[in-house]
Amino acid sequence: MERRSLRARSAFTLVELLVVISIIALLVAILLPSLSKARKQTRKVVCQTNMRSLSQSAFTYSTEWGVYPPSISNYADSSNAAVRAQRTRGGIDWLGVGDQSGAFQEGDPKDPQTGNPKGFSAAPRFGVLYPLVKDEKAYLCPDDRPGDRQAGTLLGGGGNGKFSYTIFSNLGLRSPERIPPRRQELSGGGRGGPRLGELLPRRALAGVPLFVEEHPDGINNKSASGHIEGNFNFATDYVVSRHVPFGKRRGVAPGAAGVSSFEQGQTNIGFADGHVAAVAVNHGFTASHVRPTSAGGQGYDKDIPYTAEGLLYHYGIEYDVVTIE
User: Fold this and answer.
1) CA–CA gap between residue 216 and residue 236 (Å, rounded)
2) Distance between CA atoms of 82 and 95, rounded to whole angstroms?
3) Sign of CA dihedral 226, 228, 229, 232
4) What is d(CA 299, CA 313) in angstroms, rounded to the nearest whole number?
5) Stretch (H or E) spanning 262
6) Residues 71, 94: contact at Cβ < 8 Å?
7) pLDDT per position as a tens digit, 263-282
8) Could you tell me which of 294, 277, 161 has the C-alpha nearest to residue 228?
9) Helix, strand, coil tally for the chain in percent (to 5)
10) DSSP character for 118?
11) In the chain, how many H helices and how many E strands?
12) Closest CA to 263 of 248, 280, 279, 283
């Protein structure tokens, strides 16, 4: 009888078990957001490491060849029809993906000259920068999940599963000392555009953006009018802002008719000297929102703009593609 009583006193009661379970559940609820934030921060750092590898490899390429690796625009903007036609080939640019012409086709991974764009199935191993990078994972952001693209949001949607980063089209085949500065804008501009002054000082390589995280709308558009390539064009492509920290920002909300507030995070930018920085992008949502104030846009005073045109303007660089003739 005494043994049975001792066993009963040593066991947990139902109330005690419920209290312990409640405490554990509370601790889990407190810790989960911190763990989730830590995982997001880790993915952001991995993305920065990837972009650093690409940027440093591009800088190494420039020291060996005298210029940065070519972009598709170096071929597409040529006045020579034969050279211009080469843009649909695979393996001629930094990534190895030719320019898409018509609807997307997967192609044979064993034959880089198949599919549309040619070289996509073999990318990034077919790109001219790969011998220096030597790692396919360095081309893909860990937050970039393959799937359907999602237009109308700076947070992005599904990627193409091959690459997340693109190069500024005007910096391909550009020597480091020949990156053109833009002219200073003066007051007194009209509808024809801003009044321009003297050239701004030449930018140090640490201030020249080379690689960006492009929005899946530009790198995963499989429609007949789309482009799956590694080319960041001056006014048609824009970055994605999927990294922590996130915050509510006032601006032109995606899909909204007027000014509102919406959530966005940061984007990573790889610079011409090899370093990477995370920045908060502009809160506009069309190319017109990142034009100079004298041309009717929101300007560049407080927020770094997110299109290629806006980023180049912000960093004091002129859009001027080196073409192959």
Assistant:
1) 13
2) 21
3) positive
4) 10
5) strand 259-271
6) yes
7) 778 999 999 999 999 988 76
8) 161
9) 35, 20, 45
10) T
11) 7, 8
12) 248
CA distance linking residue 133 with residue 116, whole number of Å: 24
Percent of the chain with pLDDT over 70: 82
Name the DSSP letter for residue 205: G
Give the span between the Cα atoms of 253 and 182, in whole angstroms. 30
Count CB neighbours of 180 within 10 A: 17
Signed CA dihedral, 27, 29, 33, 35: sign only: positive
Residues 107 and 105: their CA atoms lie apart, in Å, by 6
d(CA 307, CA 166): 12
d(CA 116, CA 230): 14
Mean pLDDT of the chain: 84
Phi, psi of 155 (to 5 degrees): -80, -15
Element (H, E) at 249: strand 243-252
Length of the chain (residues): 325
Distance in angstroms (rounded) separating the CA atoms of residues 304 and 281: 5
Say how far apart CA 180 and CA 169 lie, in whole Å.
13
Task: Enter the tokens of residue 166.
Answer: 């693109």
Rounded to whole angstroms, the Cα distance separating 319 from 77 reads 13
Whether 203 contacts 181, CB under 8 Å: yes
CA trace torsion 159, 233, 130, 279 (10° rounding)? -70
129: CB partners within 8 A, 6+ apart: 54, 57, 58, 61, 69, 94, 95
* Dihedral sign computed on CA atoms, order 6, 11, 16, 20: positive
Nearest to 268 by CA among 19, 43, 58: 43
pLDDT digits (tens, 9 = 90+) for 26-67: 888 777 776 678 889 999 999 999 999 999 999 999 999 999
> Any idea what DSSP says for residue 99?
P
| Other C-beta atoms lying within 10 Å of the C-beta of residue 57 | 21
Q: Please give the DSSP secondary-structure letter assigned to residue 154.
A: T
Strand partners, 146: 159
Number of C-beta neighbours around residue 263 at 10 A: 13
CA distance 153 to 12: 53
